[in-house]
Amino acid sequence: MKKITRADLTAASEKYKNWGKWGPDDEIGTLNFTSPEDIVAAAQLVRKGKVISLALNFDSSGPQGAKTKYPSMGRINPVHTMLRTGTDAYAGVLDKRGIRAADDMVVMPLQCGTQWDGLGHVFYENYMYNGYDCREVSSAGAAKCGIEKTKAKMVGRGILLDVARAKGMDCLPDGYGITCKDLDDTAKKQGIEIKRGDYIIVRTGQMEEKIKSGSWDGYPGGDAPGFAFETLEWIQRTELAALASDTWGCEVRPNESEAGINQPWHWITIPIMGMTMGEIFYVKDIADDCAADGIYEFMFVAPAIPITGAVGSPTNPLAIK
Fold first, then answer.
1. Which has the higher per-residue pLDDT, 65 or 269?
2. pTM: predicted TM-score of the whole model, two decimal places
Protein backbone atom coordinates (compact mmCIF):
# COMPACT_ATOMS: atom_id res chain seq x y z
CA MET A 1 0.00 0.00 0.00
CA LYS A 2 1.26 3.46 -0.92
CA LYS A 3 2.44 5.48 2.09
CA ILE A 4 1.08 9.00 2.62
CA THR A 5 3.79 11.57 1.89
CA ARG A 6 4.26 15.27 2.56
CA ALA A 7 3.04 15.89 -0.99
CA ASP A 8 -0.17 14.00 -0.20
CA LEU A 9 -0.67 16.11 2.92
CA THR A 10 -0.11 19.30 0.92
CA ALA A 11 -2.74 18.21 -1.61
CA ALA A 12 -5.18 17.27 1.14
CA SER A 13 -4.60 20.56 2.95
CA GLU A 14 -5.75 22.44 -0.16
CA LYS A 15 -8.64 20.11 -0.95
CA TYR A 16 -10.21 20.05 2.50
CA LYS A 17 -9.38 23.51 3.85
CA ASN A 18 -12.21 25.29 5.68
CA TRP A 19 -10.22 28.42 6.57
CA GLY A 20 -12.43 31.46 6.10
CA LYS A 21 -15.56 29.37 5.51
CA TRP A 22 -17.26 30.88 8.57
CA GLY A 23 -15.38 34.18 8.46
CA PRO A 24 -11.84 35.28 9.31
CA ASP A 25 -12.46 35.32 13.07
CA ASP A 26 -14.06 31.87 13.44
CA GLU A 27 -12.62 29.62 16.17
CA ILE A 28 -15.02 26.63 16.28
CA GLY A 29 -14.90 25.20 12.74
CA THR A 30 -17.32 22.42 11.80
CA LEU A 31 -19.35 22.93 14.98
CA ASN A 32 -20.90 25.76 12.95
CA PHE A 33 -22.74 23.17 10.85
CA THR A 34 -25.25 22.48 13.66
CA SER A 35 -28.14 24.96 13.47
CA PRO A 36 -30.70 25.90 16.14
CA GLU A 37 -33.26 23.99 14.07
CA ASP A 38 -31.04 20.89 14.24
CA ILE A 39 -31.03 21.09 18.04
CA VAL A 40 -34.82 21.44 18.18
CA ALA A 41 -35.10 18.37 15.92
CA ALA A 42 -32.62 16.47 18.11
CA ALA A 43 -34.78 17.13 21.15
CA GLN A 44 -37.66 15.35 19.39
CA LEU A 45 -35.58 12.16 19.36
CA VAL A 46 -36.06 11.78 23.13
CA ARG A 47 -38.83 9.19 23.38
CA LYS A 48 -38.11 6.89 26.30
CA GLY A 49 -36.23 9.22 28.61
CA LYS A 50 -33.17 6.98 28.76
CA VAL A 51 -29.80 8.66 29.39
CA ILE A 52 -26.66 6.73 28.47
CA SER A 53 -23.17 7.99 29.31
CA LEU A 54 -20.39 7.54 26.77
CA ALA A 55 -17.61 8.29 29.28
CA LEU A 56 -15.06 6.20 31.07
CA ASN A 57 -14.80 6.99 34.76
CA PHE A 58 -11.90 9.35 35.44
CA ASP A 59 -9.65 7.49 37.85
CA SER A 60 -6.33 5.70 38.27
CA SER A 61 -7.67 2.75 36.25
CA GLY A 62 -7.73 4.78 33.03
CA PRO A 63 -5.81 3.99 29.85
CA GLN A 64 -2.81 6.28 30.35
CA GLY A 65 0.45 4.71 31.44
CA ALA A 66 -0.31 1.35 29.85
CA LYS A 67 2.58 -0.42 28.12
CA THR A 68 3.19 0.96 24.65
CA LYS A 69 6.08 2.02 22.44
CA TYR A 70 4.47 5.42 21.98
CA PRO A 71 5.87 8.19 24.23
CA SER A 72 3.17 9.45 26.57
CA MET A 73 4.59 13.00 26.68
CA GLY A 74 3.22 13.65 30.14
CA ARG A 75 -0.21 12.07 29.85
CA ILE A 76 -1.09 10.35 33.12
CA ASN A 77 -4.31 9.08 34.64
CA PRO A 78 -6.15 11.47 37.00
CA VAL A 79 -4.68 11.93 40.47
CA HIS A 80 -7.58 12.38 42.89
CA THR A 81 -6.73 13.88 46.29
CA MET A 82 -8.97 14.56 49.28
CA LEU A 83 -8.62 17.99 50.90
CA ARG A 84 -11.08 17.34 53.73
CA THR A 85 -12.58 14.01 54.75
CA GLY A 86 -15.03 12.29 57.04
CA THR A 87 -12.05 11.22 59.10
CA ASP A 88 -11.21 14.90 59.63
CA ALA A 89 -14.83 15.51 60.60
CA TYR A 90 -14.82 12.63 63.07
CA ALA A 91 -11.62 13.95 64.65
CA GLY A 92 -13.28 17.32 65.18
CA VAL A 93 -10.68 19.34 63.27
CA LEU A 94 -13.35 20.86 61.02
CA ASP A 95 -15.59 22.07 63.81
CA LYS A 96 -13.96 25.49 63.90
CA ARG A 97 -15.51 26.02 60.46
CA GLY A 98 -18.94 25.35 61.87
CA ILE A 99 -19.64 22.62 59.29
CA ARG A 100 -18.45 19.11 58.70
CA ALA A 101 -17.83 18.48 55.00
CA ALA A 102 -15.53 16.79 52.51
CA ASP A 103 -13.63 18.49 49.68
CA ASP A 104 -11.37 17.13 47.00
CA MET A 105 -9.28 18.04 43.97
CA VAL A 106 -7.99 16.34 40.85
CA VAL A 107 -4.81 16.76 38.83
CA MET A 108 -5.05 15.44 35.29
CA PRO A 109 -4.05 16.04 31.67
CA LEU A 110 -7.17 17.29 29.90
CA GLN A 111 -6.89 14.53 27.29
CA CYS A 112 -6.25 11.54 29.54
CA GLY A 113 -9.72 9.95 29.26
CA THR A 114 -12.97 10.49 27.36
CA GLN A 115 -12.24 13.85 25.78
CA TRP A 116 -12.45 16.36 22.97
CA ASP A 117 -9.43 17.36 20.93
CA GLY A 118 -9.82 21.13 20.57
CA LEU A 119 -8.82 23.13 17.50
CA GLY A 120 -5.66 24.37 19.21
CA HIS A 121 -4.39 20.80 19.67
CA VAL A 122 -2.77 20.05 16.29
CA PHE A 123 -0.92 22.36 13.91
CA TYR A 124 -0.32 22.14 10.18
CA GLU A 125 3.26 23.32 9.80
CA ASN A 126 3.22 26.76 11.51
CA TYR A 127 -0.54 27.25 11.48
CA MET A 128 -3.64 26.24 13.38
CA TYR A 129 -7.25 26.23 12.21
CA ASN A 130 -8.42 29.23 10.17
CA GLY A 131 -4.83 30.29 9.47
CA TYR A 132 -3.98 31.44 12.98
CA ASP A 133 -0.27 31.38 13.82
CA CYS A 134 0.65 28.36 15.94
CA ARG A 135 2.39 30.78 18.33
CA GLU A 136 -1.09 31.84 19.42
CA VAL A 137 -0.80 28.75 21.64
CA SER A 138 1.84 29.64 24.22
CA SER A 139 2.72 28.57 27.74
CA ALA A 140 -0.19 30.79 28.81
CA GLY A 141 -2.63 28.72 26.74
CA ALA A 142 -4.43 29.09 23.44
CA ALA A 143 -5.23 32.71 22.64
CA LYS A 144 -7.13 31.43 19.59
CA CYS A 145 -9.30 28.31 19.28
CA GLY A 146 -9.30 27.61 23.02
CA ILE A 147 -11.78 24.93 24.07
CA GLU A 148 -13.83 27.54 25.98
CA LYS A 149 -15.02 28.88 22.60
CA THR A 150 -17.11 25.71 22.24
CA LYS A 151 -18.90 25.92 25.59
CA ALA A 152 -22.35 26.48 24.06
CA LYS A 153 -21.83 23.73 21.45
CA MET A 154 -21.62 19.90 21.46
CA VAL A 155 -25.41 19.58 21.43
CA GLY A 156 -27.33 18.09 18.53
CA ARG A 157 -28.33 14.90 16.81
CA GLY A 158 -26.01 12.05 17.68
CA ILE A 159 -25.58 8.99 15.50
CA LEU A 160 -23.82 5.76 16.41
CA LEU A 161 -22.18 4.00 13.48
CA ASP A 162 -21.44 0.53 14.83
CA VAL A 163 -18.95 -0.48 12.16
CA ALA A 164 -17.75 -3.56 14.05
CA ARG A 165 -21.28 -4.95 14.48
CA ALA A 166 -22.21 -4.13 10.89
CA LYS A 167 -19.25 -6.22 9.75
CA GLY A 168 -20.24 -9.07 12.06
CA MET A 169 -17.30 -8.59 14.42
CA ASP A 170 -16.89 -7.94 18.13
CA CYS A 171 -13.85 -5.78 17.35
CA LEU A 172 -12.17 -4.58 14.18
CA PRO A 173 -8.58 -5.84 13.98
CA ASP A 174 -5.65 -3.59 14.85
CA GLY A 175 -4.39 -1.80 11.77
CA TYR A 176 -7.78 -1.95 10.03
CA GLY A 177 -8.45 1.31 8.19
CA ILE A 178 -12.16 2.17 8.21
CA THR A 179 -13.11 3.34 4.71
CA CYS A 180 -15.76 5.71 3.38
CA LYS A 181 -17.61 2.62 2.12
CA ASP A 182 -17.54 1.07 5.60
CA LEU A 183 -19.17 4.20 7.04
CA ASP A 184 -21.76 4.43 4.26
CA ASP A 185 -22.54 0.71 4.43
CA THR A 186 -22.96 0.85 8.21
CA ALA A 187 -25.35 3.79 7.97
CA LYS A 188 -27.35 1.97 5.28
CA LYS A 189 -27.47 -1.27 7.28
CA GLN A 190 -28.69 0.65 10.33
CA GLY A 191 -31.28 2.50 8.23
CA ILE A 192 -29.89 5.89 9.22
CA GLU A 193 -29.31 8.95 7.04
CA ILE A 194 -26.47 11.29 7.96
CA LYS A 195 -27.46 14.97 7.96
CA ARG A 196 -25.43 18.15 8.11
CA GLY A 197 -24.52 19.13 11.67
CA ASP A 198 -24.69 15.61 13.11
CA TYR A 199 -22.37 14.31 15.82
CA ILE A 200 -21.06 10.94 14.65
CA ILE A 201 -19.76 8.31 17.09
CA VAL A 202 -18.05 5.29 15.56
CA ARG A 203 -17.61 1.96 17.35
CA THR A 204 -14.61 -0.25 16.55
CA GLY A 205 -14.92 -2.44 19.65
CA GLN A 206 -11.28 -1.92 20.64
CA MET A 207 -11.99 -0.35 24.03
CA GLU A 208 -14.32 -3.19 24.98
CA GLU A 209 -11.62 -5.71 24.08
CA LYS A 210 -9.10 -3.93 26.32
CA ILE A 211 -11.54 -3.72 29.22
CA LYS A 212 -12.43 -7.40 28.79
CA SER A 213 -8.73 -8.37 28.82
CA GLY A 214 -8.17 -6.44 32.06
CA SER A 215 -5.27 -4.48 30.55
CA TRP A 216 -4.94 -1.23 28.62
CA ASP A 217 -1.55 -2.32 27.24
CA GLY A 218 -1.20 -1.20 23.63
CA TYR A 219 -4.19 1.17 23.78
CA PRO A 220 -2.54 4.63 24.19
CA GLY A 221 -0.60 5.13 20.98
CA GLY A 222 -0.45 1.46 20.03
CA ASP A 223 -1.83 -0.35 17.00
CA ALA A 224 -5.55 0.17 16.51
CA PRO A 225 -8.40 0.07 14.04
CA GLY A 226 -9.45 3.53 12.97
CA PHE A 227 -10.28 5.96 10.22
CA ALA A 228 -8.34 5.62 7.00
CA PHE A 229 -6.93 8.81 5.47
CA GLU A 230 -9.54 8.56 2.71
CA THR A 231 -12.35 9.29 5.20
CA LEU A 232 -11.44 12.97 4.96
CA GLU A 233 -13.67 12.89 1.87
CA TRP A 234 -16.54 11.43 3.93
CA ILE A 235 -16.14 14.08 6.62
CA GLN A 236 -16.27 16.82 3.99
CA ARG A 237 -19.25 15.27 2.20
CA THR A 238 -21.40 14.71 5.30
CA GLU A 239 -20.71 18.15 6.81
CA LEU A 240 -20.70 16.62 10.28
CA ALA A 241 -20.27 18.78 13.38
CA ALA A 242 -17.83 16.48 15.15
CA LEU A 243 -16.61 12.91 15.00
CA ALA A 244 -15.72 10.59 17.88
CA SER A 245 -14.63 7.00 18.41
CA ASP A 246 -13.77 4.45 21.09
CA THR A 247 -10.05 4.37 20.34
CA TRP A 248 -7.18 6.41 21.74
CA GLY A 249 -6.61 8.44 18.57
CA CYS A 250 -9.47 7.84 16.13
CA GLU A 251 -7.30 7.16 13.08
CA VAL A 252 -5.85 3.82 12.09
CA ARG A 253 -2.55 2.77 13.65
CA PRO A 254 0.03 1.95 12.42
CA ASN A 255 -0.54 5.11 10.41
CA GLU A 256 -0.68 4.93 6.62
CA SER A 257 2.13 7.48 6.36
CA GLU A 258 5.84 7.41 5.65
CA ALA A 259 8.38 7.88 8.43
CA GLY A 260 8.32 11.29 10.11
CA ILE A 261 4.56 11.79 9.72
CA ASN A 262 2.58 10.85 12.82
CA GLN A 263 -1.23 10.88 12.81
CA PRO A 264 -1.62 12.30 9.27
CA TRP A 265 -5.43 12.30 9.47
CA HIS A 266 -5.14 14.61 12.51
CA TRP A 267 -2.96 16.96 10.44
CA ILE A 268 -5.95 17.64 8.19
CA THR A 269 -9.06 17.16 10.33
CA ILE A 270 -8.16 19.54 13.15
CA PRO A 271 -6.08 22.45 11.74
CA ILE A 272 -7.28 22.32 8.13
CA MET A 273 -10.95 21.29 8.41
CA GLY A 274 -11.53 22.71 11.88
CA MET A 275 -13.11 19.53 13.18
CA THR A 276 -13.29 18.95 16.94
CA MET A 277 -12.60 15.27 17.58
CA GLY A 278 -13.79 12.98 20.36
CA GLU A 279 -11.50 10.21 21.56
CA ILE A 280 -11.63 7.42 24.16
CA PHE A 281 -15.45 7.36 24.11
CA TYR A 282 -17.01 4.41 25.94
CA VAL A 283 -19.67 3.17 23.52
CA LYS A 284 -20.66 -0.33 24.68
CA ASP A 285 -23.82 0.74 26.51
CA ILE A 286 -25.14 2.94 23.71
CA ALA A 287 -24.21 0.28 21.13
CA ASP A 288 -26.10 -2.42 23.02
CA ASP A 289 -29.14 -0.16 23.41
CA CYS A 290 -29.15 0.79 19.72
CA ALA A 291 -28.83 -2.85 18.67
CA ALA A 292 -31.74 -3.75 20.96
CA ASP A 293 -34.22 -1.12 19.76
CA GLY A 294 -32.87 -0.59 16.24
CA ILE A 295 -32.66 3.16 16.76
CA TYR A 296 -29.20 4.59 16.13
CA GLU A 297 -30.02 8.28 16.52
CA PHE A 298 -30.41 10.24 19.75
CA MET A 299 -30.04 13.63 21.32
CA PHE A 300 -26.36 14.15 22.03
CA VAL A 301 -25.10 16.47 24.79
CA ALA A 302 -21.35 16.53 25.48
CA PRO A 303 -20.09 19.99 26.45
CA ALA A 304 -16.43 20.62 27.03
CA ILE A 305 -15.35 22.12 30.34
CA PRO A 306 -14.71 25.77 29.42
CA ILE A 307 -11.12 25.98 30.62
CA THR A 308 -9.82 29.20 29.11
CA GLY A 309 -7.03 28.60 26.62
CA ALA A 310 -7.18 24.80 26.84
CA VAL A 311 -6.56 22.71 23.72
CA GLY A 312 -8.68 19.79 24.89
CA SER A 313 -11.23 18.88 27.51
CA PRO A 314 -12.59 15.90 29.38
CA THR A 315 -16.28 15.33 28.82
CA ASN A 316 -19.15 13.11 29.90
CA PRO A 317 -21.03 12.63 26.61
CA LEU A 318 -24.70 11.79 27.04
CA ALA A 319 -26.91 10.01 24.55
CA ILE A 320 -30.56 10.69 25.38
CA LYS A 321 -33.14 8.42 23.75
1. 269
2. 0.96
